[in-house]
Amino acid sequence: MTKKTLVIGAHTDGIGDAVIAMRGELGPSHPRNTLSAPTREQFDVRDEFSIGKWIDLHGPFDEIVYSAGVSQLKWVDDITWRDIDRVYDVNVTGAILVAAQHRRWYPDHPVRYAVVVSDAAHTPMRGSIAYTTSKAALEMAVRNMGREMAPLWTVVGVSPGVVEGTGMTRELAEKIPTFRGWTEDQAREYEGTPPIGRRVTKREVAETLWFALTGPQALNGSIITINGGK
After folding, report:
1. Do the beta carbons of residue 128 and residue 81 sit within 8 Å?
2. Per-residue b/e over 98-123, b at no fewer than 16 CB within 10 Å?
3. What is the pTM of this model?
4. Residue 104: its pLDDT value, please?
5. Which of 2, 34, 87, 222 could serve as a FRET partner for 177 with CA atoms 20 to 30 Å apart?
6. How do the domains of the chain map onto residue ranges?
7. How far apart are the first and last CA of the chain?
8. What pLDDT shows up at residue 30?
9. Closest of 34, 56, 45 to residue 10, by C-alpha
10. Among 65, 97, 94, 101, which Cα is nearest to 212's?
11. How far apart are CA 113 and CA 32, in angstroms?
């Protein structure tokens, strides 16, 4: 049976693209051979109409990966409600609206929903209050959706640490030293190295997301941490 998969947050050289690359390895004859990966212009997670339009035209989907996310460096003294809204709109609200719109258009269709969270949800970081609190809120959204939407939906969060090679990781590596007045070496030392001796890779997170989509239904409402034991 063919499965239709929607990947949200691709085309940024990040985790979503790694999920797509793994799907490509399955080959055209694999049952999971229909994948939709809209661009930001086609599918704006900040816009309920944009979300609903895409799902209406291309759904229903059997599997959804939500990997859209933005970060921000702002001291509490300087932050505004617009700064907070920008982060929450993408990191939290969008993930909820995707589920809401799909349920409205296809209320009886079962879905496996894998959401990229972050271990930043449990790590207070100076200059990142909007990001860390948004990820904490997203964890609770995953648990809440899992509780409310089961058994038709299975909702699972995947919580990586710092992921090597993503656009977000590179952007923060460039900005953090200036923001905090550090050298690049000081910034990396502060971040620390996981016990496995390296950062998590995009491929490893993608593998975990595919497991969330295909693993036991009892994963519903769970948060799977993948951070190398940090």
Report:
1. no
2. bbbbbbeeeeeeebbbbbbbbbbbee
3. 0.92
4. 97
5. 87
6. 4-226
7. 39
8. 57
9. 45
10. 65
11. 15
Q: Topology of domain 4-226, per CATH? A: Rossmann fold (3.40.50)
d(CA 11, CA 186): 31
How many whole angstroms separate alpha carbon 230 and alpha carbon 228? 6
List the structure tokens of 138.
């997203």
> What pLDDT, on the 0 to 100 scale, is given for residue 176?
83
| Residue-level pLDDT, tens digit, the chain, 230 residues | 678 999 999 998 899 999 999 876 765 555 556 889 999 999 999 999 999 999 999 999 999 999 999 999 999 999 999 999 999 999 999 999 999 999 999 999 999 999 999 999 998 989 999 999 999 999 999 999 999 999 999 999 999 988 887 888 888 878 888 888 888 777 777 777 889 988 999 999 999 999 999 999 999 999 999 998 88
Neighbours of 67 (CB within 10 A): 24
What is the distance between the alpha carbons of residues 107 and 114, in angstroms, rounded to a whole number?
18
Residue whose C-alpha is closest to residue 123's, from 138, 113, 133, 114: 133
Cβ burial of 185 (10 Å; 0-12, 13-18, 19+) is: exposed
